[in-house]
Design goal:
This protein is an all-beta fold and 846 residues long. The protein folds into five domains: 116-392; 396-489, Immunoglobulin-like (Sandwich), CATH 2.60.40; 491-618, ntegrin, alpha v. Chain A, domain 3 (Immunoglobulin-like, Sandwich); 620-757, Immunoglobulin-like (Sandwich); 767-844, Immunoglobulin-like (Sandwich), CATH 2.60.40. Helices cover 2% and strands 46% of the residues. The protein is built from three helices and 75 strands. The strands form 13 sheets. The chain has an eleven-stranded parallel β-sheet with strand order 1-2-5-8-12-16-20-25-30-34-37, with helices on one face. A ten-stranded parallel β-sheet has the order 3-6-9-13-17-21-26-31-35-38, with no helix packed on it. The radius of gyration is 34 Å and the shape is elongated.
Length: 846
């Protein structure tokens, strides 16, 4: 854990060292050009900056009817003080004098606002520190402290807002006092008919005192408002007096009078708000009266007689609480009732043994905590409850599987990782295991473990580094180690896998296609990745410009030094025609394949056929399998390549996407290889003992469709083989379930593959479906590859366009046909296997 020095005021930590960027029409300097702040305000125009040097300024400011003025301290809130001198409120901003809209381009930053006093005996007393009416400024890096409202009915000694939408950020509201003989509402902040956003705030030690009969919301009072409260600490606010009739909401009171109120409390700490005379304080943390309350990732602890109260004086109250620590407990998912173990009741940092560490949820959690530290910490964990994300050390082991190219048994800095390699950890009570790009990171609990190289992950490779396993003793919290497994190929082989991904093709929309290539072999590859696009599609926008083009619809990208397990991706946007051009439901055809620069080894690269329909309405969450043939026939020796597509069609970010996919028992689970993913940096993959594969995208923050149509989509694809000795015409079925955050799962369609030894012959099938023959590239120049997946001898004859025989021969599985001596033109290849004959057109370009 980082060493942290605690100050008397937590807010000091927040403000020290902040920087200010000044961009405006002009800068008005106080006191060098203007003797006081008010005269500078009066002279300022829209967008001007008033830069105030550190000092103590005794002023009661009335903001002019001008938008966008920025009042900024050249120092900090600790050395630049605006003092109301105990005679009036410190700052008033209202729309009393005209129709000018004052919005959040108006800024007050870096001051202490203090010693404001509203004294209205027998009257209403509003906002001694800052008074806002019908305005929405940005209040940042402020200390609003020791302001007093005195009267019969008192409201918001620190901040009073009415019909306003301010942003209140990195601000302390503390030690403000309401002295009322009747009603006291919101000693720290009062909000009526407003929608403030309050983040990274300290609202503490505000006091309601003397002879009031009603005490509501020592920290914050909310009425007919919608308040968003993030990353804030509301603590040690106090009600003083023994004559009152009602004491509600020591931290927050939220009520409805004419318009239903709501408050959202996310990653906040609300603690030790109390009534000093021991009177019963109901809803000492939060009191909801006829309003809607949401509490998430928060700590509500040691507040009055009860932490929460739902009152129905002004309507039915609702309070939803989840992933929070509530003293006395509360219904809801992820809630606990355990002492949070604060270091003390001033700082609210958590001890390392706190039960609140790492048990929150990423859903809606701010990316940073109250001090700006990243959340969660460590990455890929769950966030802490409360406003402060503890920078925990964590026990971990990084397992590096690398291609030991020189076979010296040690990892050299220039050597590449073998990303298909995996490890086995036993016992399996670790927190998380995932590939983070630098190796396989295992987050571990205290205990003894064995981490061993998994030879099934690389069946054509051998271990070169000696040790096949390591015994690890995790005996302290910040244990860290790195272990290395060097591997080298037994036999050099070429296996290049291409795949294509796109969201569902919707008529009249522009769709992004991604073409992937991954080197699954054991040699370093050079060549060209080709993408063949349906000839009917002509409106193209290349995000990655092709290196070469054959005809209008075949595009190629060169690649060099592509190491085993590494890959590349190329992207293009394609406008899908409307139903007047291509009928809905019509299949569009795409192909990807590779052309190797050197063919000294057996060719095992594949052609990926992507045949997808045009849809004018669709379910965007689906599953596909390749090969895709009539009757779903798949050969025993073929890989099954599954792609699961998902899209956030809701109305908010998805912070977590989980795909649960139960593997068919007829699949060889050990052969599973993840090929590609839209969000690889967030992906963790786990296969359970009973064959359930889980793809978890943590903290993915997937935008929703109306926010970012293209960005709302995602996918994961993997390949897997069938087990040996599967009976002829066995059916392999597969269905996935997609979870967005913690909503009910979305069930995809069910794919089906019928496993056969050979493809049935039928005049209705295409040549590819019957003999499994691929020609590529086509058009060709100096050579063409002929590939069959039948594992049977196939004879061929090459004919010219006028029927003359040019070449003939026979091949098994793969063959490279030399065309260097043949002129450009249109030719035909006739294939024969057993009693079946087929013909394919070949175009040769020179």
């Amino acid at each position: 854990m980082k060493n942290k020095k605690f100050q008397i005021s937590l807010f000091l930590i927040l403000c020290i060292g902040s920087t200010i960027t000044l961009l405006a029409q002009s800068v008005l300097n106080v006191p060098s050009s203007f003797k006081d702040i008010q005269s500078a305000l009066d002279a300022a125009n829209k967008g001007d900056i008033i830069l105030v040097q550190p000092g103590h300024y005794y002023e009661n400011l009335n903001w002019p009817q001008k938008n966008g003025i920025k009042l900024i301290s050249a120092g900090t809130a600790q050395n630049t003080i605006i003092d109301g001198n105990g005679i009036d409120r410190v700052i008033k901003i209202s729309n009393d004098f005209g129709p000018i809209i004052i919005d959040t381009t108006t800024l007050i930053q870096g001051f202490t606002i203090t010693n404001g006093h509203i004294n209205e005996p027998g009257q209403w007393a509003y906002g001694a520190g800052i008074y806002l009416e019908g305005v929405s400024p940005h209040l940042k890096d402020l200390v609003i402290s020791k302001n007093i409202s005195t009267g019969t009915w008192c409201f918001g000694a620190g901040i009073y807002m009415e019909e306003s939408r301010p942003i209140i950020e990195n601000t302390e509201v503390s030690e403000n006092i309401l002295r009322s003989s009747s009603w006291s509402y919101g000693a720290g902040i009062y909000s009526t008919n407003s929608s403030p956003i309050i983040k990274n705030a300290f609202i503490s030690k505000n006091i309601m005192e003397s002879g009031a009969s009603w005490y509501y919301g020592s920290g914050i009072y909310i009425n007919d408002s919608h308040v968003q409260l993030n990353n804030s600490i509301i603590s040690n606010n106090e009600m003083i007096g023994s004559t009152g009739s009602w004491y509600f909401g020591g931290g927050i009171y939220c009520s409805t009078i004419s318009s239903r109120s709501s408050v959202k409390v996310i990653n906040c700490t609300i603690a030790n708000n109390f009534h000093s005379n021991g009177n019963e304080l109901e809803g000492g943390g939060i009191c909801i009266d006829g309003s809607d309350g949401t509490v998430l990732n928060s700590i509500i602890w040691n507040n009055g007689n009860s932490e929460f109260v739902e009152e129905n004086f002004s309507g039915t109250a609702t309070l939803e609480v989840s992933y929070s620590d509530i003293k006395g407990g509360w219904k809801g998912i992820g809630n606990i009732d355990k002492d949070p173990l604060f270091i003390n009741n001033e700082s609210y940092f958590l001890k390392l043994e706190s039960p609140c560490l790492g048990v929150g949820t990423l859903i809606h959690a701010p990316q940073n905590d109250i001090f700006g530290n990243p959340r969660p910490s460590p990455v890929r964990s769950n966030p802490d409850m409360g406003a402060i994300e503890m920078d925990q050390d964590f026990a971990h082991v990084l397992a590096v599987v690398y291609y030991d190219e020189n076979k010296n048994g040690r990892f050299d800095s220039w050597e590449h990782l073998q990303q298909n390699g995996s490890v086995l950890v036993s016992p399996s009570n670790y927190n998380l295991l995932y590939n983070n790009g630098s190796g396989i990171l295992a987050l571990l609990k205290t205990g003894k473990y064995r981490i061993e190289f998994n030879p099934l992950s690389l069946p054509k490779w051998q271990l070169t580094s000696g040790e096949s396993s390591f015994d690890i003793d995790v005996n302290f919290k910040n244990f860290a180690d790195t272990i290395y497994f060097g591997v080298a190929p037994d036999i050099l082989s070429s296996e290049l896998v291409t795949t294509i991904y796109s969201p569902p093709l919707r008529c009249n929309e522009t769709i992004k296609f991604s073409v992937f290539l991954k080197n699954e072999g054991s040699q370093i590859e050079n060549g060209t990745l080709w993408f063949k696009i349906d000839e009917r599609l002509t409106n193209l926008n290349f995000l990655d410009k092709p290196d070469t083009i054959i005809n209008p619809n075949i595009y190629g990208w060169y690649y060099t030094n592509l190491y085993p397990s590494e890959g590349l991706m190329k992207c293009i946007k394609i406008k899908i025609p409307g139903v007047n051009d291509i009928p809905a439901g019509e299949l569009l055809h795409f192909k990807s394949y590779v052309e190797e620069a050197i063919n000294s080894l057996p060719l095992t690269s594949n052609m990926y056929c992507y045949d997808v329909p045009i849809r004018c309405s669709f379910d965007p969450n689906d599953k596909m399998v390749n090969p895709m043939r009539a009757e779903n026939y798949t050969l025993f020796n073929e890989d099954l390549i599954y792609t699961i597509r998902f899209q956030n069609t809701g109305n908010d970010l998805a912070y977590r996407v989980v795909i649960s996919d139960t593997l068919d028992p007829k699949l060889d689970w050990s052969s599973l290889q993840v090929l590609n993913s839209s969000h690889q940096e967030h992906l963790a993959t786990d296969v359970s003992e009973n064959g359930i594969i889980t793809f978890s995208f943590e903290n993915i923050r997937l935008p929703f469709e109306k926010q970012d149509k293209e960005g709302s989509n995602g996918f994961v694809s993997y390949k897997i083989k069938s087990i040996a000795n599967v009976p002829e015409k066995s059916s392999i079925q597969n269905t996935a379930y997609i979870y967005f955050d913690y909503n009910p799962p979305i069930r995809t369609n069910t794919t089906q593959s019928i496993m056969v030894e050979k493809l049935p012959t039928s005049n209705s099938q295409t040549d590819k479906d019957i003999l499994g023959i691929y020609l590529y590239p086509n058009p060709a120049a100096n050579y063409v590859y002929m590939k069959s997946i039948l594992n049977k001898p196939i004879s061929y004859i090459l004919y010219s366009n006028d029927g003359n025989e040019i070449k003939k021969g026979e091949f098994l599985n793969n063959y490279k046909l030399n065309l260097e001596s043949i002129k450009a033109g249109t030719y035909f290849l006739k294939f024969k296997c057993s009693n079946h004959t087929e013909c394919s057109k070949l175009i040769i370009l020179k």
